[in-house]
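Q: I'm building a small set of examples for a reading group on sequence design. Run inverse folding on the following structure and report the sequence directly after it, with nothing in between.
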């Protein structure tokens, strides 16, 4: 859909989204949003894309739901974020709400989904 957000199929195979995830990982300890997991220890956490959307603008807008896992793969939390990538110049535009572990577990199990309108902004 031109101008609107569309869901990214197979986000684990999207190299642009992988680069955005690496950037979000580096910025996580610097953000001020309060999450139940310790975002200051981002180096000990793994971000897993649960669901993501993209919008073509002068660059690309992303709306991403991340599961936060510890080094053993245990789910510690989840959060939504919005990122703008202007041809390689990446910035987080919104550190969005935390998503409950039970809700993200349901999404991972295919029992529910978010829509692009479930994000702020």
């Amino acid at each position: 859909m031109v101008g609107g957000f569309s869901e990214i199929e197979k986000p684990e195979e999207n190299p642009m989204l992988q680069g955005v995830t690496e950037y979000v990982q580096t910025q996580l300890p610097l953000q001020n949003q309060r999450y139940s997991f310790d975002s200051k220890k981002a180096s000990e956490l793994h971000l897993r894309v649960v669901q993501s959307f993209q919008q073509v603008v002068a660059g690309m807008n992303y709306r991403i739901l991340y599961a936060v896992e510890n080094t053993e793969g245990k789910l510690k939390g989840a959060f939504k974020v919005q990122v703008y990538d202007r041809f390689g110049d990446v910035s987080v535009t919104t550190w969005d709400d935390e998503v409950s572990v039970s809700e993200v577990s349901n999404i991972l199990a295919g029992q529910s989904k978010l829509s692009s309108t479930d994000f702020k902004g």
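The first helix runs from residue 15 to 27.
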